[in-house]
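Appendix C reproduces, verbatim, an entry submitted by the partner laboratory led by Prof. M.T., so that reviewers can inspect both the input and the predicted structure.
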Amino acid sequence: MDAHEQEEEGTRIGEVLGERWRLVERLGGGGMGEVYRAVHLALGRTVAIKVLRPEHAWNATTARRVLREGQAASRVVHPNIVRIEDVGVDAKGLPYLVQEFLDGLDLDAFALNWRGVVPARELLPLMIPTLDALGALHDAGILHRDLKPGNVFVVKDGARWSPRLLDFGLASINDELDGQVRITTSKVTLGSPAYMSPEQFRDPRALTPRSDLWSFGVMLYELLSGVLPFSGATVGALAIAVSTEDPVPLGQRVPTLPPVLAAMVMRCLEKDPVRRPSSVRELIAVCEEALTELPPPGEIVPVEPTGPVERPVPAPVIPLAATVEAIAPPPVRPRRSLAPRALAVSLGAVALIVAVVAAGRGAPRVTAPVEAPVAHPPPPIPVSAPLAPAPIAAREPVPPPAPLVAPAPSVSPRPALRPSLRPTATPDAGARAVALPLPQPLPVVAPVAAPPPRDPPPLVASPLGLGIDPQYR
């Protein structure tokens, strides 16, 4: 509509149609006419009135057809069909229809809540009653001829949305004007050709209920995928695409759809009307089946990963000896001087290590660099002697500490002390004993129960697995 037409339409505010409907506000316009909010003069009831544009009301036949369609629609009582209140012709000879005023939005605006792609779980509960309303029209012998998202209105019905089918029958005025096809005016075709069937482009007089099913399939395809199945820069190019091209399968565009639903939409888009579903009842059955294959509202749907997924890996169980570097420094660096008695005890432990080395050289290699003898405070109790070298010495992973905490060697505690002091007098044994490969004591000595120590107090286990005299802790 140009500026002159808008000004002319604006001057209609305040007019009274049929001596009872006062035009209050212009709500919008479409290819066929202008829509106004109006009130009943006597009852004060608010309604919506659609007035046909002058270019579509150029002869008496058109006016009669509008009245006939309005009268037929008023006889179809269905909760999902907009209610027709009145029909008539204004003082300018323009037909008009009075229908219930709906406070809501059409499916085009509704789809914007999901950026144009409505989830099937949200859409199908609206499409099933819409199909039922369309079936009621077909049963009454009325073809919609202009089914599209803009002609399906949704209103709040309590906590849920409820659809209303609008503008049925008016598109037939666009298609048949005394037998002449008029689709060349841009105002007439805006928005509608994208939903027209191949036969509607060829011969609008050959339409059947299956032509409406084509339009429904296009609408469902668009709402579920966000794109139209056919496109063209002009109406002519679009007509060629609709008549000759195959659309991208809906299941390919939206792989998460139930296959039965995607297949049903593609059947609606068959070029040959005979290959489309036979009636809306068949479509309703498919939509209801598809709903059972969708997760219920609010349920989280697991999505198959499209790439490698990083999963949390549990921390490995590392033997105590393998982490000796992390925990060794506090015991290795003495924080206080030890008594001479502690020095003698440490030298005894080193001597015992040398004795064990001499006993078996076939064990795995374990090195134990020690900074100074005074850095190791465990007493020379044989039961704890095997514990000392294993955790301190390890620089690389070794078997778990359980095997290393072996029972005491077969030698008795007292005899073990006397020979252990002699190797310390040799030049190399005392200085480099801990640098030699140390055997694991378990394979070389038979475990026997060791008697409790007599002189030293009870030992306390340190973080390194060493036996430490409590008075030096």
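The chain has three domains: 1-101, 104-294, 320-472. Additional entries are available on request from the coordinating office.
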